[in-house]
Design a protein that fits this description.
2 copies of one chain form a homodimer. Chain A has helices at 9-23, 30-37, 41-48, 51-75, 80-97, 105-113, 118-144, 154-173, 179-190. With 193 residues, chain A is mainly α. Chain A is built from 9 helices and no strands. Chains A and B meet through helix 6, helix 7, helix 8 and helix 9 of A and helix 6, helix 7, helix 8 and helix 9 of B. Chain A binds a DNA duplex (30 and 30 nucleotides) through helix 3.
DNA sequence: CTAATTCAGGAACGTTTGTTCCGTATTTTT
DNA sequence: AAAAATACGGAACAAACGTTCCTGAATTAG
């Protein structure tokens, strides 16, 4: 029927994630998107609708990608406590290294947009729900295997893990570069397990 | 020499805190400021310079006000653990009640601007420093009085308190309305004390 | 009362914003 | 080969942006 797209929609979305992650929704202009995605304005609008729709699609992809990643890691883990430690240590390394996409795209979007955009708010809340569930399942498994203390309920620990993660990502976004600060937080978190 | 101002600069700043807190920096337009502060454009710019300067002044006032408040409460406290519990329970109530200025203005600003505005980044980092110090002093006092466990170092606990607070404020900003979620987080936090 | 000063309101500025439209190139189907 | 359909680049759009300037009113000092 017609010409084929010269770009991959998925790759374009990854580029959109990058620039929105770095600059936020309101901080990213249409020109920024054209430049960073390497598409013309028409292709961009023909493919994704408008800026808000593109943002929602990008955030959805980010949530899906990161969810699948964490879920897989935890489901194939033999020692839950060690694996959780690994996940958090990786988050710390990322926080200290990355110079562009600091923090967490989901946390940033929650703070900037959840109050003002119901579609984004729903993505954020859904992410929270499924992430809590992933942690919950993992903690439960860890408790049954005797790797995690049963002093606290699995639900409570799952929620606390998620909350601590959010805090760390804010810290990273604020530019905290002292590894000791992160390590203290991790030490405190894992003292509960 | 001349006419006196018809408005209080301090009250105007409080209004600026409100609107910036609610909408963020990039989400707040000059017209929003004029409308919400009740000043003319000229008065606004004559008094505060420009939007960025007004924001920085507003954030500075917010940090100063909230710092003084927490510091006073903790310094006059007879039981540190109970007082910390009270502070966090109040934060939860605010998170559940407030419909406008959800979350924490400092956390929101850190996420939105710290990477892109060095002046704001400095305010955020300074706030982090002094808040950690307030918590540190309080925890230390609590440990010496036997109100807080000495199983963890005071420095570590102070950092963890701050981090958990950030997380809670993100949760509130995301629109979490389930009190049980907040209570679980608080229960986990205080199980460390 | 006059002069000096600073106020407040609103028009106006040039930019930048997000979005649309048009002309052309390219590919696929008939 | 012709026709249909879509991608592309860039010009063009109105609206909103942050900021400045101009006007006249108000207040105080001399």
């Amino acid at each position: 029927m017609a010409r084929t797209k010269e770009f991959s929609e998925d790759q374009a979305l990854d580029k959109a994630i990058e620039i929105f992650w770095h600059k936020g929704y309101n901080g990213t202009s249409a020109q920024d998107l054209v430049t960073h995605l390497g598409l013309s304005r028409s292709s961009l609008y023909d493919t994704f609708g408008d800026k808000q729709k593109l943002f929602a699609k990008a955030l959805n992809k980010y949530q899906s990608d990161s969810y699948v990643k964490v879920k897989e890691i935890l489901e194939t883990a033999t020692n839950i406590k060690d694996t959780l430690t690994l996940i958090f240590k990786l988050a710390v390394v990322e926080s200290l290294e990355d110079r562009i996409t600091k923090g967490c795209f989901m946390v940033n979007s929650a703070v900037e947009l959840a109050m003002h955009d119901e579609e984004i708010a729903k993505i954020v809340r859904d992410n929270q729900k499924v992430m809590e569930e992933v942690f919950f399942t993992a903690v439960k498994k860890g408790q049954e295997a005797g790797q995690i203390s049963t002093k606290q309920e699995a639900r409570l620990l799952a929620r606390f893990i998620f909350n601590t993660y959010s805090g760390i990502r804010v810290l990273a976004r604020a530019g905290e570069k002292d590894k000791q600060v992160y390590d203290d937080i991790l030490k405190a978190l894992f003292s509960l397990f």
